Amino acid sequence: MKIIPEVKWKNLIEDLNNIRGVSMIIGATDSGKSSLLKYLLKELLRKNLVTSVIDSDVGQSSLGLPGTVSMRIFYNEHDFDKFTFEKMSFVGTINPAMNMSTIISITSKMTKICKENSDFVLIDTSGLISGEIGKNLKILKIKSIQPEHIIALQRENELENILNFVENIYVHRIPVSCMVKIRSREERILYRKIKLKDYFSNSKLNNFIVSKNSIICYYKKNSFIPKYADCLQGKLIGLNYNDETKALGIVDEIDDGSIIFTSPIDSLKNINKIIFGDMKI
Prior knowledge:
- The chain is α/β, with parallel strands linked by helices.
- It has helices at about 5-20, 35-45, 75-80, 100-115, 130-145, 160-165, 185-200; strands at about 20-25, 50-55, 70-75, 85-90, 120-125, 150-155, 170-175, 205-210, 215-220, 220-225, 235-240, 245-255, 260-265, 275-280.
- It folds into two domains: about 5-185 and about 190-195, Rossmann fold (3-Layer(aba) Sandwich); about 205-280, Pre-mRNA cleavage complex subunit Clp1, C-terminal domain (Elongation Factor Tu (Ef-tu), domain 3, Beta Barrel), CATH 2.40.30.
- Helix 1 crosses helix 2 and helix 4 packs parallel to helix 5.
- The longest helix is centred in the middle third of the chain and has 18 residues, at about 100-115.
- It is globular and about 60 Å long.
- The two termini are about 25 Å apart.
């Protein structure tokens, strides 16, 4: 997809270059956050500046998979053509309000990794901005990460309830492009389905049987023992080493002593957690 930059987008590059660091992009659903991020990324790479991307939009991730926070470090222009994640963490939901603290924590940890290894960090966020939940999500994320820049994509003044709480951070108010396409709910659902279908169909799938006693399972940060009665068949799971999800899987069956699932991962060596969520495939 060709990205047509707005005039103010071009001015952003100079502003970001003057004070390097972390830039968080916020805006409502269908405000062009991902398109702006890709434009900034491409321009920074053209200047030979190592740039990291963190995608914390768990519902409509452009870098990663639905239900995950993901990251990648881009070293040169050639990397731009491979716009996909290199690390991810499964949070188990496409609704950021359902697992707010985990999303903030993971995004913050990824930011620290990226800051140590790149000149710039660009963070994409979800379109949840309205109401107390949307406001709190963005304010808590800003406080946790402390970015140098906030890039606020607004149609009118819909972000001011968040920006009013921002202190000692450069805020760039950018009007939403008239070229932005408004997507329907059905289109968003289809986008997620295609992303997950591609992930599982483009790799060789392996079947695993794991004893419930050999690994710790988590649901919304709490450990639990999955049971047949929980109706978990078809649920997505994250196969983790600590906070990093090495692969996703699909639950085939839960019996008295085992979890049976399918995943593109080759081996469960070093996997020490299984993360359950609310997503089915």
